[in-house]
Automatic annotation (TrEMBL):
InterPro entries: Aminotransferase_I/II_large (IPR004839), AspAT/PAT-like (IPR050596), NHTrfase_class1_PyrdxlP-BS (IPR004838), PyrdxlP-dep_Trfase (IPR015424), PyrdxlP-dep_Trfase_major (IPR015421). Gene3D superfamilies: Type I PLP-dependent aspartate aminotransferase-like (Major domain). It comes from Tetracentron sinense. GO terms for molecular function: pyridoxal phosphate binding; transaminase activity. The keyword Mitochondrion does not apply. Its cofactor is pyridoxal 5'-phosphate. Pfam families: Aminotran_1_2. GO terms for biological process: amino acid metabolic process. This is Aminotransferase class I/classII large domain-containing protein.
Amino acid sequence: MGTYAKLAKRALETDTPVMVQIQELIRGAKDVMSLAQGVVYWQPPEQALEKVREIVWEPSTSRYGADEGLPELREALIKKLRDENKLYNSSVMVTAGANQAFVNLVLTLCDAGDSVVMFPPYYFNAYMSFQMTGITNILVGPGNPKTLQPDADWLERILSENKPVPKLVTVVNPGNPSGTYIPEHLLKRISDLCKSAGSWLVVDNTYDHICRYFMYDGLKHSCIEDNHIINVFSFSKAYGMMGWRVGYIAYPSEVEGIGAQLLKVQDNIPICASIISQRLALYSLETGPEWVRDRVKDLVKNRDLLLEALSPLGEDAVKGGEGAIYLWAKLPDNYPDDFEVVRWLAQRHGIAVIPGGASGGPGHVRISFGGLREADCAVAAGRLRRGLEELMRDGMVQ
Ligand SMILES: Cc1ncc(COP(=O)(O)O)c(C=O)c1O
């Protein structure tokens, strides 16, 4: 007792969740505003919440449901995938959020000891999912220094040179923590490389809505499908359903056995996603994409406020932010310890952001602009700007 010796190496060697560390930091400091957690400020559609209130007493709400999700919700999602994402040959499994969807996939597709590929700055939870599954060979490829988009030439090399061939390649579009968007031609090239190497491609589209309605210069978010591609989605952000925990996997219908293997994992983790949450997801979908569009367009003002607040860091310091709810900012070279700067900003200036080291991008910070209404975001932006001005002028004075 009192020793780590009896705990699994897989768990011990998995990173500590950065959000948990930031939550502790926020609790330990006074009056901190958060630009840290990737959340949106709105609640689910009112009509959907009202309908959910009515089914609380229905016996089926309290029973287990089908492991793969409520048939009505899966049917609605297959239609949504066809109409909005142009995915015509996908089957759906509903999960307790996109994070659980990703864990299901890693457990279904990978064995301990396999190698996998991701690109920095990567989504920290995806990295942790690999670590806790016993995948020790996580190949982290370079991105384009200007756009942060994955370097497909590097991927081509790795997929042809690395033996055994990496089992799985994953990308997030648009990215967390950067908000970087992957254009369709690049996604297709990555897919072609995976296909000829025999690797799975898992695309996390958690922000598909916050991309379709929130992109600049005519950029267009798209999904692609093939028998080696699996797409992941979430209800958390678009519909303000973070705490309801609903996501889904769109996997190729033609690949024999994948549904059956996914079900084994599903049956041992949540059995099924919460029934009342799935109903809320269905009712929210029924309110239509305009509901989401109306909310997402207001985020543009938050993004502008925070871009301005980051300006003390210099012209080329800020990247990403083409979709999703994030900006990715480089700290000056003399501050390689991003967590130190994050602590200082919280304690001295009352503003919380995420250290980039958690995403394979030390010396950077992630700023989330979805969680505050415009007026609060303006206050938070003021604090951030004052903090960064002081950092640039005087350093981390106490
Ligand atoms: C890229 C990405 N994937 C997955 C998730 C988790 O989403 P969910 O709440 O559906 O588990 C997030 C949440 O921030 C995310 O940014």
